[in-house]
């Protein structure tokens, strides 16, 4: 299994576990699971950032990579401060926003993986500079 497949597996496994844990926490019966949820969220975002680094070295557009990395930072910040935002009866809106933003991080990771695989199939990567060079089959 190559590194991109491992990253994809970690991204999706963390995403699934986070969704289940988040729903348990949301029902009010899993407050003791919050530290586990936070730790898995950090693993998910860390994986996204690793994917961003690989995508950048594979020649994916800088703006796309930066946006995905910033999205990961947004997930962490929102996740850590959400308890203080909109307390009371409307707090569920922040929880839904956290869910949507977090699903976006998974989408970004999958999208960057797709772009990276495509970029690598179109050209070989120079091991020194990290830039793409045309493969012999595409010349």
Task: Report on the architecture of this protein.
By secondary structure, this protein is mainly α. The protein has one domain (3-122). Helices cover 72% and strands 4% of the residues. It contains four helices and two strands; from the N terminus they run H-H-H-H-E-E. It has helices at 3-26, 34-57, 62-81, 91-122; strands at 123-125, 132-134. Strands 1-2 form a two-stranded antiparallel ribbon. A hairpin with a 6-residue loop joins strand 1 (123-125) and strand 2 (132-134). Helix 2 packs parallel to helix 4 and helix 3 (62-81) runs antiparallel to helix 4 (91-122). The longest helix is centred in the C-terminal third of the chain and has 32 residues, at 91-122. The radius of gyration is 18 Å and the shape is elongated. The two termini are 29 Å apart. Mean pLDDT is 88; it is low at 134-139.
Structure keywords:
single chain; 139 residues; mainly alpha; two-stranded antiparallel sheet; elongated; disordered C terminus
Topology:
Elements (H helix, E strand, L loop, with lengths): L2 H24 L7 H24 L4 H20 L9 H32 E3 L6 E3 L5
Antiparallel strand pairs: 1-2
Helix pairs in contact: 1-2, 1-4, 2-3, 2-4, 3-4
Distance between the termini: 29 Å
Q: Strand order of the main beta sheet, please?
A: 1-2
Order of helices and strands: HHHHEE
Gyration radius, to the nearest Å?
18 Å
Summarize the structure.
By secondary structure, the protein is mainly alpha-helical. The protein has one domain.
